[in-house]
Amino acid sequence: MEIINLNRQHPSIIYSTNSFVLSFQELKDIWLFNCCQGCQHKMEKTHLKISQISKIFITELNIHNISGLLGLLSSLSLINRRKIMHIYATRGLEKYLELGKRYSQTNFRYHLYFHTLSTGFIMNSNNYHVYNFSSNLKCEFLLISREKYGKFQLQKAKKFNLATGPLYGKLKNDYSFLLPDGSILQGYNFTNQNNPGNKISIIMQKYHTRNSKEISYESKILAKTLVI
C-alpha cells in the first residue's frame, strides 16, 4: 500500500489495488473507496483508525470491492460505534448486507444510510463537491474543492490608514475602489495569493472510457486503473 502526502489544503491518499482511502487528517475524517479483503488490516498497519470512517463509496458491485465490507462494519459495531455510516453504491448492496447480517446473525449498533448512486451531484462535504459518473453500473468520481481567498494583510491596510470595517471584506474578496484623488485600491494588493481550488478524478476502471477521459481533464488522477 503506497502513501502519498499532499499539502494541508488537500486530503492525503493511500493506494490499494481495489480500494483506497482519502484521509482528511485535520478533520479526523476518512472516506473509503471500495472495501476489499484485508482492507481493515491494511488501514491498521498504516495507523488509520477505522472509527474515523464516515463514508464508504463502492465503485462497482463485485466480490473484489465488497469482500471486506461486512467484516469492517461488524468491527465498527464491536468498538461500540454510534455515529451514522453513509454508504454510496448502486442498487443491490443493501440487500447483500442484509442477507450477510442474517446469515452471520449480526446486528450493527449504529445506523447505515444508503445512497443510491446515479450520474450527477452527490454531496458537498469537507469543502469538496462530489460528483458521480455511472456507466454500466460502474462508477467514477470527481471531487472539486472551492476557491479559497488568501489571508487579508491587516498590517498593510493599516499602513495605508484604511478604516476598519466592511471595506476590509471587500478588498479581501478582490474588489477594487477608485478614490476621489484618482488613485485605485486593488484588492489583490492587500491579500495573499488565492488558492484556486482543486480537481480530483477517481477512476477505478480496467480500461479508459470516454467518461474517464472527460472527467480527468485538468485533474489530479489519484486512483490507479485496476490491474488484471
Explain this structure to me?
This protein is of the alpha/beta class. The chain folds into two domains: 2-148 and 196-224, Metallo-beta-lactamase, Chain A (4-Layer Sandwich), CATH 3.60.15.10; 154-189, no CATH class. Helices cover 23% and strands 29% of the residues. The strands form three sheets. It has a seven-stranded mixed sheet with strand order 1-2-3-4-5-6-7, with no helix packed on it. It has a five-stranded mixed sheet with strand order 8-9-10-13-14. A hairpin with a 5-residue loop joins β11 (176-178) and β12 (184-186). The radius of gyration is 22 Å and the shape is elongated. Keywords: Plastid. One of its GO terms (molecular function) is 3'-tRNA processing endoribonuclease activity. InterPro entries: RibonucZ/Hydroxyglut_hydro. It comes from Dicranema revolutum.
Compact overview of the structure:
This protein is an alpha/beta fold. It folds into two domains: 2-148 and 196-224, Ribonuclease Z/Hydroxyacylglutathione hydrolase-like (Metallo-beta-lactamase, Chain A, 4-Layer Sandwich); 154-189, no CATH class.
CATH-derived architecture of the largest domain? 4-Layer Sandwich
- Overall structural class, as computed from helix and strand content, comes to alpha/beta
Q: Kindly provide the radius of gyration, computed on alpha-carbon positions and rounded to a whole number of angstroms.
A: 22 Å
Query: Could you list the spans in which at least 5 consecutive residues all have pLDDT below 50?
Result: 1-9, 12-16, 224-228
Number of strands: 14
